[in-house]
User: Fold NAD-dependent glucose-6-phosphate dehydrogenase from Halorussus aquaticus.
Amino acid sequence: MDDPVLLTGAEGRVGQAILSDLSAEYEWRLLDRDPPTRDTDHEFVVADITDEEAVREAMDGVGAVVHLAGDPRPEAPWNSVLTNNIDGTRNVFEAAIDAGVEKVAFASSNHAVGAYETDERTPEMYRRDDDYRLDGTEFPRPSNLYGVSKATGEVLGRYYHDEYDLSVVCVRIGNLTKNHPPKDYERGQAMWLSHRDCAHLFDRCIRADYDFEIVYGISDNDRKYYSIERTKEVLGYDPQDNSAEFADDETENGDEAENADDTGNAAESQTDD
Ligand SMILES: NC(=O)C1=CN([C@@H]2O[C@H](COP(=O)(O)OP(=O)(O)OC[C@H]3O[C@@H](n4cnc5c(N)ncnc54)[C@H](O)[C@@H]3O)[C@@H](O)[C@H]2O)C=CC1
Ligand SMILES: O=C1O[C@H](COP(=O)(O)O)[C@@H](O)[C@H](O)[C@H]1O
Assistant:
């Protein structure tokens, strides 16, 4: 990709995971409503994606978009997801069409399908000997209003692909944490996405050819209830990490995690804050 790549939500956790490995790979145009908190060699646009005109300006000359900006909180209220995640995402797609952008990678979420995790299936489906898999062909079953907003983003992507031939990949991201998987959290270990796999995955989203796709974005965890076959097939995703490598046998069998933090970091939280 020779043209600039617009990265919305660049200041956030996923954005920083991508930039930590791919900073030199592209001519990035970074966008966030918050100004940069660290030095960057890249152009930085301080803008809110709910500002149509600002998004339109930021899209000028762009070849591809990685769209991450939004409210990532599973408990986010409707007014926030409606504004930031739905209106904002529509603005990004609309501006992409007007600017002649080739492809958009949209950060969807496990919460778009969280309601498949029924009482009958859990916790067994989080374990490595269980073969239940979602593969991206299933209907959304959001587990909260945030998940509804992510499912809506996917549908917007479908519309802009069908109507305008934009290449769109929706990545249902699992749980991104730095250095090691979430502790004491089977579900989080099953849908762990390491930082390097995250960067590699979005690199593939920028480089690969596709029409419209919904894929899962997790590392190659022994525990998994999301198939990454389509992610591999369509994008050429080749994950390097596996949450099992950080866990003892008891943890892998579903008992309480005893942590295998090989970095010395004390990471008590489920996410990478
Ligand atoms: N971190 C994770 O494990 C997962 C993240 N995701 C999705 O990935 C995306 C990024 O998530 P994180 O990096 O974790 O969140 P984050 O909160 O760390 O980063 C989001 C960034 O977007 C910016 N932003 C929010 N609303 C904006 C707006 N209206 N206009 C411009 N900028 C805005 C924020 O300032 C922030 O820098 C989100 O869309 C989230 O739903 C999906 C699944 C899992
Ligand atoms: O979509 C998201 O999912 C991750 C994982 O969900 P959780 O319910 O296991 O915490 C979450 O950490 C992240 O903030 C959110 O954007």
Observations:
- Residues 72, 74, 109-111, 175, 187-188, 270-271 surround LXAUTJHC (ligand 2) (CB under 6 Å).
